[in-house]
Write a structure and sequence with these properties.
The protein is α+β, with helices and mostly antiparallel strands. It has helices at about 1-30, 40-50, 50-70, 110-180, 185-215, 230-235, 245-265, 305-370, 380-415, 415-425; strands spanning about 35, 75-85, 100-105, 225, 275-280, 285-295.
């Protein structure tokens, strides 16, 4: 008698829970006017609002200033020499002193100025290549955040379906308890599962909101936008052409810079002459005389040999790194393609074998419970429904991994390089 009264009390509670759930669904649904953003639109927003663009521009300016400095030749020198203004014997009178004002210039030989400018320009190319790698890395992080937002959004329907199934079965279980077909604890267990499913749904929606907010933070926006859920379901195995990787382009620029530094170091073995012209004043008689002179360093053929050898070794090391990087990138691309193929195969088997079977089991047990039969229990339904939910969650996780591997694949193949031109022109 006690079980019957508690079961009757539980039915209104179930109806209230259903009503609250409907209200929650309406409150959490995205506004109809929310803009749906695809990946290209997301990256375009970041391309115009990322603060890293200003940092890259500053690096370009600093490298460009080095070219201006490299164009500066050795500065001319103006000096004055005083001689014999104090001494002993015949040189003691101050009127015997001599003063010489002179002007000196050094002439660079061996193409030093051109080599300096060439090395500075090569460094500008290195900075530009490094900036492009930084921007590609940031775009890859944005793309990964976009995938995470899609995956978080895809988890919501799984939680919603589980909650809806459990609520329907809870009503059937309450009826069975009322008809004395099941003990009271079955209704309590059903109510507990519904509560847990409601919590899971709330968590899924909150996780999706946080993921959208994290994505929007890349362009200092808010999460008031929608994502197309169909995008996550696409299993595109098309591999972009394997062009020259941005990482290899950095090493190529560094190799060119090393070559320019070799030439610059070699010019250090060529001596630079200097010439001097001056006017000398003799205190004794107040006469004037013109002075001309010059100088050139001696033994300069091997003066910069160590720097030349070091620059040549740096260039060889960079060239070896280029070869290693090319091989590593090719290997990683092959591994990414293989991993994505495995994921596609597993998703195919889940769709063809696991989900149909799990859905049939849930439907058969749910229908049996609804008919009031005794062949099934709520525990069996709970186990079948859990297996179905886990299969759906596994599928979402596989889709997430598939697209995250695609993010890395896009990064290595330079899929978003055309977008860099727009980013590099923004100050």
């Amino acid at each position: 008698m006690l079980s019957l009264s508690r079961a009757r009390f539980g039915a209104p509670a179930v109806r209230s829970a259903l009503l609250c759930g409907a209200v929650l669904l309406a409150a959490c649904a995205p506004p109809a006017s929310a803009q749906t953003l695809n990946l290209d639109e997301v990256l375009a927003r970041v391309a115009t609002a990322d603060p890293a663009i200003a940092a890259n521009a500053a690096r370009r300016d600093a490298a460009g200033a080095a070219i201006l400095q490299a164009d500066v030749r050795p500065r001319d020198v103006v000096g004055v020499d005083f001689e014999d203004f104090a001494g002993t014997g015949p040189y003691s009178p101050l009127n015997r002193s001599q003063a010489t004002g002179w002007y000196e210039r050094t002439w660079e030989r061996g193409g030093k100025r051109e080599a300096r400018i060439g090395a500075a320009r090569a460094d500008v190319s290195v900075v530009g290549a490094q900036n492009r790698v930084r921007l590609l890395d940031r775009l890859a992080r944005v793309q990964a955040a976009w995938v995470e937002a899609l995956a978080a959004q895809a988890a919501i329907p799984v939680a919603e379906t589980r909650l809806a199934d459990l609520r329907r079965v809870e009503l059937d279980v309450v009826k069975r308890v009322t008809g004395a077909l099941d003990p009271w604890f079955a209704a309590e267990r059903a109510r507990t599962n519904v509560a847990q499913a409601e919590i899971a749904l709330e968590q899924a929606r909150e996780a999706a909101r946080i993921a959208r907010a994290s994505l929007a933070a890349w362009w200092d926006g808010d999460g008031d936008f929608a994502l197309d859920p169909a995008v996550l379901q696409k299993l595109d195995m098309t591999v972009p052409p394997r062009g020259e990787s941005a990482d290899v382009a950095v090493l190529a620029a560094e190799s060119a810079a090393a070559e320019a530094k070799v030439r610059l170091a070699e010019t250090g073995n060529i001596a630079d002459p200097s010439g001097r012209v001056g006017l000398r004043h003799f205190g004794d008689g107040n006469d004037l005389a013109i002075m001309v002179g010059g100088s050139i360093p001696l033994g300069s053929k091997g003066a910069n040999r160590g720097n030349v050898v070091r620059a040549q070794a740096d260039k060889r090391a960079i060239e070896a790194d280029m070869a290693v990087t090319r091989v590593e990138i090719d290997r990683e691309i092959d591994r990414l393609i293989a991993d994505r193929q495995l994921i596609v195969a597993e998703i195919g088997r889940i769709d063809a074998e696991v989900l149909p079977s799990a859905n049939r089991a849930v439907r058969l047990i749910r229908d049996g419970l609804a008919r009031g039969g005794t062949a099934f229990t709520f525990l069996e339904f709970s186990q079948a429904q859990t297996a179905l939910s886990e299969a759906c969650s596994r599928r979402v996780e596989l889709l997430r991994r598939f697209h995250l591997l695609g993010v890395r694949l896009d990064r290595l193949t330079g899929r978003h390089i055309p977008l860099l031109a727009r980013m590099e022109t923004i100050r």
